[in-house]
Amino acid sequence: MIKANTCYLKIKPVDILAIGVHPDDVELSCSGTLLKHMDLGYSVGVLDLTLGELGTRGDATRRTMEAIEASQKMNISFRTQLNLRDGFFKDTEDEILAIIQIIRASMPKLILANALTDRHPDHGRAAKLTSDAVFYAGLAKIITLDENENSQQRWRPKMLAHYVQDFQLEPDFVVDISQYMNAKIELIKCFDSQFFKENTPEPDTPISGHDFFEFIKSKAKVYGRPCNFEYAEAFQLQHYPGVKDIFLGFDLNS
Asked: Residue 205 and which of 48, 140, 154, 214 are 20 to 30 A apart at CA?
């Protein structure tokens, strides 16, 4: 059985669980949304599926330290990491059960997960793995145990949304992060092994250029423009959402 390694505080129930296959995925793609919703009073936890050990720059130990720094700066409720094989994880029973344990322990109403398709093959594969785990977490006959070896209750969140990553995908909805763009950039910079830094001996990568942060901001501008937001983060859904009140569901009263 794959065990979780809590790197920042112990797992507890939260409103939102953000899942990324690599330690910086959440910060890059949905941290503005997380910061905004924490200010609105919602609680947030983060799950990294791997330690990012195959990254061209840095190593697993350093990336975990960076994840802890980002978690402290974001002031989230917890961050836990699974040690799935970066690049070579599979959609197997052990992997699914490990994620189910975290879902059942944290009982989120909303899960944010990797992009459905992307330049990095891990992202789409992690989206499928997470989606499978979300479904199976709601089946009572699948037994998982908590840290005290007690049976966990079944749990399925009300929504699973996939954040957009490198590819410019057509979103199903966007979240206004105009007030949180600068804070998001500061969170991303916690992972300084991966991103631009003067005089580093590390090799160049597609995300290590000095203009990468401008790319992040420009992409957020593009997603925000149709909704008259200065900056936005984009998400896709695997099925359409239901709206009980059009005025509340689409913020027509503001």
From this structure: 48
